[in-house]
Specification:
alpha+beta
Length: 350
Amino acid sequence: MLHVALYGAEDRAVILTYAWDRLLIDPIPGPRGASDFTGLKRMTPAVWAVPAKARPIAPAGSTLPRLATELPHTFALIDPHQGAEGVTRQLEELVEHLAPQSIDLLDVGGDILARGDEPTLKSPLADALTLAACCQVNAPVRLLVAGPGLDGELPPEALRGMLGPLVHTFTAKDVEPISTVLEWHPSEATGVLAATARGVRGTCEIRDAGLPVPLTDESPTVHEVDLDEAVSRNQLAQAIMATETLEEVEAHSREICGYSEIDYERNKALWLKDQPPTKLDPKATLAQLDQFEAEARTRGATHTTFRRITEALNLNGTQRDDLRQLLINSRPERYDAPLWRVSAEVSAES
């Protein structure tokens, strides 16, 4: 979405990204590496592209092959298992191989600007690892933050003073190239960003914890941020510069932030494993939805994500698509794509 807005629809990008779809898609905690896939295409000694024919090795899951099918860009895999030194090596090899006209490091939400001790911070590891690598590569990297506060981790007011020049403000037109992807892809931050670009305003609950995210006129903006200033703030990024394993990165995260988000996923995966399968009963589900929405209204929520509803109704990730279709088919007027609008009153249908 950003690439088309800044460089045009005809230009092609290499998008270097994590295969880390969380437990809603991938039942295995933590990010996937190249050894977790079949059908990858080697780009450099350390970098593998994820083409449409690639497949995660069961039971792992990944949305990257389908993204590669539906979008025109090349998706390449950030492999964090060799720590910041490994990611830096990947970047250096890609720069040498591609000689790119520009390199943009994009974070949706802005938690890449966290110190590491903020009580609302939930997932600092991937951001800090990428930031640590980008500041060490011998090439100019532009840091961009889209949708300040939309990931629910740092409030917009905490970010405002750190944001630099406005680079772009997304509109509904910008969303069109990825509109079909938004119908199935589970990324909450991207979905909320796209909804605000389409004009949705209010307060959206996201994630299993129901983090409240304000949807304002600032939400669809993209700002440049000084890379060196971000590194000087991010204590975890500073600490992991020389790491050679993901385990080292996790150890620093526990020390600086008080936790590793992969530990959280490990614990949650064990809990989910012990939960009995729940059948999606339409009438009961809509009644549960009414109860959830009644409680969400008291918290000031006007919108929520399908991931949030899935978890709040104690359904598993494999039922997310069925739940989504049930809700949209039953109450289509409440679909503020790709978000769900919380009703103002209890539905008479249930």
